[in-house]
Design a protein that fits this description.
Blueprint (H helix, E strand, L loop, with lengths): L1 E10 H19 L2 H8 L4 H18 L1 H4 L11 E5 L5 E5 L10 E9 L3 E10 L3
Antiparallel strand pairs: 1-5, 2-3, 4-5
Helix pairs in contact: 1-3, 2-3
Length: 128
């Protein structure tokens, strides 16, 4: 059963500007070490960083129905976007928001092109 849906779009130049201006301070406030390491191996790391930023924002939006039940907004670094062995992206949660995954699953789709990155997240209830 679908509980929440979130979508976000990010202009890649916005992330490029933030990294240029604030460097590692920005990166460490928004991305986990694993996310930074993955993105920096890419030919265009800013596209991957922007896609992950969009995925984090989309996740926060998808989780909003549960926040209405007393949950809090997770920190951006409590939402980690990883890729499995086939390259498929998925979300790992940390901190207090992690308890959500006991009865729910997050489904993620991300894409990017020259100027924009977009992400959609569906929060589905899996059990009783």
């Amino acid at each position: 059963m679908v509980v929440g849906i979130g979508t976000d779009i990010v202009e890649i130049q916005r992330i490029t500007d933030a990294v240029t201006r604030w460097g590692s301070h920005f990166l460490s406030r928004v991305y986990t070490d694993a996310e930074q390491a993955y993105c920096m191996t890419k030919h265009s790391p800013y596209q991957s960083l922007a896609a992950r930023f969009a995925a984090k924002e989309a996740t926060i939006k998808a989780l909003s129905p549960l926040r209405a039940e007393g949950g809090s907004v997770p920190a951006l670094t409590d939402i980690e976007v990883l890729n499995d062995s086939t390259g498929r992206p998925h979300i790992r949660l940390y901190g207090p928001v992690r308890r959500i995954l006991r009865n729910h699953t997050l489904h993620l789709s991300i894409a990017h092109e020259k100027h924009y990155a977009v992400a959609s997240v569906v929060l589905a209830r899996t059990g009783a």
